[in-house]
Amino acid sequence: MAKEMKESSEMEVPSLVDLCVENVVEQFDTLVTKCSDCEEPKFIWRFLHPGCRIPPNAAITILARLQCRHIFKREHLTLFSKHYVNLHAFFLINLNLTPSMLSILRDFTLYDISVGILSGISLNDFVSTLNRSTFEWLHTLDLGDLAIGDKETKCASLTALSQLTNLQSLSITDMALNSKDLALLITPLTRLEFLDISETKVTDIRCLSELRNTLKELVMRKLRLQTRRSFDLSITDMALNSKDLALLITPLTRLEFLDISETKVTDIRCLSELRNTLKELVMRKLRLQTRRSFEWLLSTILELSELRFLDVAMFPFPLQWRLHEIEQLIGPASLPHLKHLEMCGNSFNLTISDLQTLAKNKPNLEFLGLAMWNKATLHESWEIENLSIEHPDIKICGGIHEGQIMKMLEHYETDFEIADPILDEMEWAMSVGTVYSHHFYEFLVNRMEGSRELVNIISSADIYVAWVMTQGERSQNIPRELLQRMLNCALTLIEEEELDFDDDEDTMEESDEDEDEEEEDVDDDDDEEEEEEAGEVELGDGEGTGNETVNTEDVNGIYGNDDNNDDSGGEEGAGDGGDEGEEGEG
């Protein structure tokens, strides 16, 4: 009875506003028309009352849903001017614009702005459309992949953005900003709690020390570390080792989110200092290779009592030993608040019995990711489906049952690292005799036709060939319309890949020039640092610079080419080298 009451309470009835918004989106073409009496043709709403305006929450929801469903075009921006809507937030992505099209923003006080992949405009064009009240009240800004412009306009734009003194969340991903630009931008932003500088040209993040009392979440994927100072660190996909992590974490006492994926960290014991604050921890593809490394990792995880989100997916070298920490991890006393556990690839080498114990002992668990679980055992892959049936309150994604694969493709649609191997699992399952229905392939085609992201990771041609080969003589029963749709997807994918290859060649020279310029800036910075070194205050423990220097080969090398450069190198030897050897058994 209690379970039925819970399920009933979770079935939310849509509000009247939400129903109206959905109706507007579905009937969009009927509700708008092109004005022929205006000075220049433009779209207008077919409102019953001329003075009617859509309220802020409904307006931004309509704007977002139209774009998500690929209905919105740049000509529709006039529908969201002050004549028709009130706006407190603005969302715009993947459009080709002219600067004048953004002039509608001048008439609103905005608190939340998210724009990205906009061609035809620069950062300066965008900043110039914001009015004084927006500069005063804006608290969230996402500027993904926005063009910077020349050096003069870039400096003016960054100076203007630094006046957003109430800003709490800032994302400047995939923008051509370097370390000096970052310092210019964030130094005055003393209230910043979230910062994402992924895929920028930043190589020196010492300026972030100014945010040590406010910053709670820091995301820095795929940076190119080039300087040699103790605080010149990045988080994901970098040569960050265990000592670097400790130096970075020490001042950030209020950190709630941390992502150290694809780094050289093998010892996370420093995170125990965050046991009362850290709520989300992502550690994908850590290259742990020894028993001691796994013991340190698991024992530290067990200390993080406030953890809600844990991602330990796709370790290249899964745990080979049965540690007593595993029994504690799956037991009832650890991680009482855990809601999301991503274990794609089975990094801790758990069994189906372990998963059953885990699911039973974590009452707040809502998601369990088990993709790429165990190709060696077909039985266990099928057992994940049974586990999902036994625990309907937990969203379990894993296994090779076609229902599970469909669930995984929906959940991981934009998580390309996991979504791509899911199809490999399907091919493996087919190779050992698993047969999928034509309804399953129809689901794949529907997803591909509705999502450009999914098309990029699924080879529809491979699916088509594998399907026909598996069905054998029954291929005659495949609906011809479905076969044609699959073929169209394959041809579209091939054509787009050819175009992308041409675009990549055109941009390679520009990218090389930008990197050369940044390297020159780094050399100049290092010369200045050597002159000022005696008077600077380090953010370390003051035990000398030898342990704080980042090896140039580690930084510039491609991850995984030289195993002797990572932390685990010392463990493979006599136990007294590398990060772990120097810090001892502790």
UniProtKB/TrEMBL annotation:
Residues 496-541, 563-586 have a biased composition (Acidic residues). Gene3D superfamilies: Ribonuclease Inhibitor. It comes from the Eukaryota. GO terms for cellular component: Cul2-RING ubiquitin ligase complex. Residues 496-586 are annotated as: Disordered. This is Disease resistance protein. It comes from Rodentolepis nana. The lineage of its organism: Eukaryota, Metazoa, Spiralia, Lophotrochozoa, Platyhelminthes.
